[in-house]
Amino acid sequence: MRIVLAYSGGLDTSVILKLMQEKLGAEVITVTVDVGQKDDFEKIEEKAYKFGAVKHYYIDAKEEFAENYVCKAIKANALYENAYPLSTALARPLIVEKLVEVAKKEGAGIIAHGCTGKGNDQVRFNLGIKALMPEAEILQPVAEWNLTRDWEMEYAKKHGIPVSDKIYSIDENIWGRSIEGGVLEDPSIEPPEEVFEWTVSIEKAPDKPEYVTIGFENGVPVSLNGEKMKLLELILKLNEIAGKHGVGRIDHIEDRSVGIKSREVYEAPAAVTLIKAHQDLEKLTLTKWVIEFKSIVDSKWSWLVYNGLWYEPLRLALEGFIDEAEKAVNGEVTVKLWKGNAIVVGRKSDNALYDVKMATYEKFSTFDQKLAKGFIELFGMQSVLAYNMLHGVHSTSNISEIKEAIKTLE
Amino acid sequence: MRIVLAYSGGLDTSVILKLMQEKLGAEVITVTVDVGQKDDFEKIEEKAYKFGAVKHYYIDAKEEFAENYVCKAIKANALYENAYPLSTALARPLIVEKLVEVAKKEGAGIIAHGCTGKGNDQVRFNLGIKALMPEAEILQPVAEWNLTRDWEMEYAKKHGIPVSDKIYSIDENIWGRSIEGGVLEDPSIEPPEEVFEWTVSIEKAPDKPEYVTIGFENGVPVSLNGEKMKLLELILKLNEIAGKHGVGRIDHIEDRSVGIKSREVYEAPAAVTLIKAHQDLEKLTLTKWVIEFKSIVDSKWSWLVYNGLWYEPLRLALEGFIDEAEKAVNGEVTVKLWKGNAIVVGRKSDNALYDVKMATYEKFSTFDQKLAKGFIELFGMQSVLAYNMLHGVHSTSNISEIKEAIKTLE
Amino acid sequence: MRIVLAYSGGLDTSVILKLMQEKLGAEVITVTVDVGQKDDFEKIEEKAYKFGAVKHYYIDAKEEFAENYVCKAIKANALYENAYPLSTALARPLIVEKLVEVAKKEGAGIIAHGCTGKGNDQVRFNLGIKALMPEAEILQPVAEWNLTRDWEMEYAKKHGIPVSDKIYSIDENIWGRSIEGGVLEDPSIEPPEEVFEWTVSIEKAPDKPEYVTIGFENGVPVSLNGEKMKLLELILKLNEIAGKHGVGRIDHIEDRSVGIKSREVYEAPAAVTLIKAHQDLEKLTLTKWVIEFKSIVDSKWSWLVYNGLWYEPLRLALEGFIDEAEKAVNGEVTVKLWKGNAIVVGRKSDNALYDVKMATYEKFSTFDQKLAKGFIELFGMQSVLAYNMLHGVHSTSNISEIKEAIKTLE
Amino acid sequence: MRIVLAYSGGLDTSVILKLMQEKLGAEVITVTVDVGQKDDFEKIEEKAYKFGAVKHYYIDAKEEFAENYVCKAIKANALYENAYPLSTALARPLIVEKLVEVAKKEGAGIIAHGCTGKGNDQVRFNLGIKALMPEAEILQPVAEWNLTRDWEMEYAKKHGIPVSDKIYSIDENIWGRSIEGGVLEDPSIEPPEEVFEWTVSIEKAPDKPEYVTIGFENGVPVSLNGEKMKLLELILKLNEIAGKHGVGRIDHIEDRSVGIKSREVYEAPAAVTLIKAHQDLEKLTLTKWVIEFKSIVDSKWSWLVYNGLWYEPLRLALEGFIDEAEKAVNGEVTVKLWKGNAIVVGRKSDNALYDVKMATYEKFSTFDQKLAKGFIELFGMQSVLAYNMLHGVHSTSNISEIKEAIKTLE
């Protein structure tokens, strides 16, 4: 029996690694996918072999993550419940893809992961595996074997698995960092400063603002301060710059896939900055009809990805919409990073429906007036009529005194 | 011929006041509605009589504005295009109501206002008047008589109407301040510090944060830092406090009713703070189903009000929804005001779907695991199936090796 | 141990009734709620006692069903996936309410029902019970004890429970009849004539049409052919009349709550006729803004009720919208019933936004022309601009040859 | 001065043709685009020259209309306000395209058409011309010169233009026929039989039904009764077959672009049949998530096309969604045409999410039961909690009597 295990090097997956050998007599192949978490991957590999892995894979998927996953999220202004940039949610399908690749290559019929039965990640892992490799068995030991933290701690000690005493549960990738547990579970209490690593406090942020200019092509960031660069590089740089100014902290009440509400805290300096800039550029370059409809498309996209429905055909259809719409989203946006704020202070674009409009605006100024009259009349006709009827008021004056008066003026 | 004129005391309406007497021989009754603009109303009255008004009305509608208009906007999280709290838009129907009251009382058949033919306010004024008093004639001299700024200036000089040299066009009420014109028309340029009056710059904001706690009942703010107060008072206080911390500046590209895109700059310290707090409390107290649907209801409400469709029956229907939903929105939210940021750092409520959930969460922890399994399976069934079919992969294994193995473990 | 059982008198619930006594030693109280199914309720009572019920309740809830459930469905134009009038789905929460009433009165801590684990009704029963009586245990023997049809048949024979040989599984109430099973499970095969009881085939329908006129007040049917009557009576009559003309057969692919697609066949003569009439009257009396938004509200309402979320706060909020909107839905609609067709051929209303419009239409005819010009210009401005920009075409002609020419004509 | 005129050969456009020569001294080039209207095109050409056209174009665009316009409408299930298949609305942008082609080829700077200022077509013509040829002047003589019917009649008589005495105003193309005017303007009166030409009355329809089977590929009809054919041919045949059975009459209240409600009557046998079949096949082949969202996309598409916003970027974005979604819409649908009814009685597809489901359904039958339990619990968790809290009921029983009892049974 061969099992592929998504291995982070932490307590849960180390215990599982050991346990699956012990209880199932399985050969376990460990896989660590690098999506930008700040880990020591050599140490993780060491651990994997130490705890009995027959083979270990380290897969650097950072660039793939930026190009094929984060890129789509930016175009979709992806903020689940208007707040969470989906960092963890976005990385899960990529990790699943890698696990399945290894499982197929290694002839393993079982894929295991360390998710509990209470969170969102089990939904993302399990549905991803079912989609990509329906013939695989999914093994979710924490849930299926009802492993409790206490039991795990004891088991770990027995088997020489190092047990950290950290209070918070962290997940990280280039698109953001999520912090759970401890005092954060009480939504009435302000998150203590110690939970943050990527962002400084407003107090410690520089007194002077810093301006960054982001260039977009087809809705995708392609340059920073005039310098062309790959999305991965741009995100890494922006995480640093914006984080230094305290930008990107998020604290809100979130509805998990499984129906539970929970208080969630994130840091996502690049994500917050880029999505603000992107949304602003859309307002300049997209028609009001596209903006209005795209906001529905965008939230549905976020909802699907958050809830593990990455492989649902609806995602591709939504992207069919988004890719077409984004063709006009070209230009540059300047963001001022200052004391926790990311403020868009300037934007320009060859596709601006604004600049051109300004030109024609002047041209219109002589006859625009009559245009508006007709517009208002027809635009509001039904509403006015309905209100009048409901309140029993009716227009009676066909011949108005003013018309005559105005004529004399003309 | 009697005309009721919405009179601000500024250049446009002073010119119109004079002009309507001169050209139409009209008796003009001026009306100034106080919705919180920081004007000298005695001086305005003086001016009105000086330029020939036969009668002047000053109407203090601040409390009515807070209770019947702003209140609804808070419950609807009203932000047009996710940015503009509708300050001016909200006040227009109230002003119209007052104009109509005066027109009826004074037997005037004509209502005049100073809007141009290019903006949003003409839509709001004209549709409001048509709804409330369809028998009235609407006179919009700037548009109908094609008055240009230059012509107005000259006319003003001739008639002793004072001409200010201010660059920006301002509209103010308790819910916000809008600034237009001058360099702001170029969306690529950062708004100069001089345009702001209600908010200090981040630089000048205090180094220490200030916490405010807002209490809500049925979605409406009812207390500040534990002290019960009327909405009007609460807003006025919060404008001051939040403004002092540089909170509430808005700068975005906006789609006007008439189809033009324009760059708009606002200050709205209380509005920004209260809507953030309100949205956060909704996440704690409303089910995910209500939150998701209400976001559609909310944006439609904002769209209607922005576009002058206050009297459209749809607004009342949307409020039917909102009022029912808001019954659960009770509790307190703590906001940290600091260097331009308004950060929600704590929330509590007897209606929290979170706290109770935490309790039951624990209870569930023993059997939740199987619940999630069934949930994931059925929740993702169609998506997985569709993906498998499309990619020609099919689940084949009915009898799995793992099931047997697991049994031995149990 | 006392159990309240939802008892239909059929095989499943009779087996359960017996089994719960035998296996659990329970005292079982049977409840049959009459929502218009064409059953012999005395016989059902006899059976209940025969198979060991300690007490039997027959509850006539037909009028309550019409007034408090069907009434809301009509106002919401309730058609799940544009097809199914929700007959069964609507009745479930009412039945649950009655079960809970009995359970509380009789001091029973357990409520049992005969649903399988594959359908929609288990969702509706279980969520309803959890909402109304969370302290109650829910017993769903077919699912929990894995009862198969074969096992049930054998058990029934052993215990003298009559076993019918009917192929189809039927559920009926005043709002419709659903037919499942047998050949209907193959969606490529036309439903055989034998499955229908409430509607004649088109062949056997009368050669001559029949006109019915339905009067509505606030969106609710209140009269038939000019005669005022209660909704229950109106529905019963209309089921007969429309059914006689072959109106009301439905055959479509439906997405069940649990994720399965299934082919469903229904008969609902009154429902189909009334909803058509109601929708038509809405088009006459509601503004286009309300119609457009209400269609979203309506489908969400249907979705909630279909999926057993009757007690979800969102339903009440949607009804807040609907009740407000329906205030204008007054008038009469004439429907022609003929050979399977229900065709709206006439409608009138004092609230018509049409008749009044016709009047003003004439008035407008002299100057409407310029109104439309301005409307079109502003309505289409952004779209035209965006298209021009994208295709590199720009308007260049400011002074047109035609303008001069036209002037000479004027 | 050269003018290109959209010429139908009817009274309006013949009068305009003459008038533009007379009043403007213009050279007029007439263009008749054949989109399937049942006209004598040779006679129209004769007339054009007789009334002074310097050149006449007859352009057969039927196939282009089917392939590039109707095709998209089918994929979008296009029914404006759930009723109107957009026949006229769809043809307008194609006609505009042809007019612009001719104008450019012939060096004409003006494009003229015969629309009044009250209807929808002016919006479609004018916005189309502005998009495709912004440098062109648009001449809309009926509106701009305020031509009344009486004046036109007199003018026609004077200039030998034949005046018909038909009561109804007709517009026709392969996708449908619209009938306006006369008694139809009273929405309370049933349309008289004489207005229909493409469909027989139910009375005269055959006593026996006729089955047609329509094959779809990527959402587009490609075969009729097993025979592959081009969409144009398929539509023409189906218009005949379905029309013969009285299928395709539409009568509803419609909201025009300009805000007026009007009663509209259409015949569209192929459109009604194909859209029904297409929608049914979608239910079989698309996931519930896609179906739900696509219904929003579809109505927005119809809304845009109805309102003349064919060139709005949003249309292309919506089609990006639709084209992706429709990849799964392959298969065959059988429709029974009978006495005015078009009833889908069978459907099959290799992409069916139903047939496969049936297979797996069986597989699930042993453990599905527990899956549903978990699903229901989590699916309804928040709703139940919210209801309980609101009504002050709380679950208290942690240890239930039944659990013990059930255990003894297992």
Keywords:
disordered C terminus, homotetramer, five-stranded antiparallel beta sheet, nucleotide-binding (chains A, B, C, D), cytoplasm (chains A, B, C, D), globular, alpha/beta, 3 domains, Argininosuccinate synthetase, chain A, domain 2, Rossmann fold, five-stranded parallel beta sheet, 15 helices, 410 residues
Short précis:
Chain A is an alpha/beta fold and 410 residues long. Helices cover 46% and strands 20% of the residues of chain A.
Describe this protein's structure.
Chains A, B, C, D: Belongs to the argininosuccinate synthase family. Type 1 subfamily. Chains A, B, C, D: Homotetramer. Chains A, B, C, D: InterPro entries: Arginosuc_syn_C, Arginosuc_syn_N, Arginosuc_synth, Arginosuc_synth_CS, Arginosuc_synth_type_1_subfam, AS_cat/multimer_dom_body, Rossmann-like_a/b/a_fold. Four copies of one chain form a homotetramer. Chain A is α/β, with parallel strands linked by helices. Chain A folds into three domains: 2-169, Rossmann fold (3-Layer(aba) Sandwich), CATH 3.40.50.620; 171-355, Argininosuccinate synthetase, chain A, domain 2 (Alpha-Beta Complex), CATH 3.90.1260; 358-409, no CATH class. In chain A, 46% of the residues lie in helices and 20% in strands. Chain A contains 15 helices and 14 strands. In chain A, strands 3-2-1-4-5 form a five-stranded parallel β-sheet, with helices on both faces. The N and C termini of chain A lie far apart (94 Å). The model of chain A is unreliable at 356-367 and 395-410 (pLDDT under 50). Chains in contact: A-B, A-C, A-D, B-C, B-D, C-D. Chain B binds chain C through residues 255, 258-261, 286-287, 289-290, 293-294, 296-297, 300, 304, 309, 312-314, 316-325, 328, 378-382, and chain C through 255, 258-261, 286-287, 289-290, 293-294, 296-297, 300, 304, 309, 312-314, 316-325, 328, 378-382.
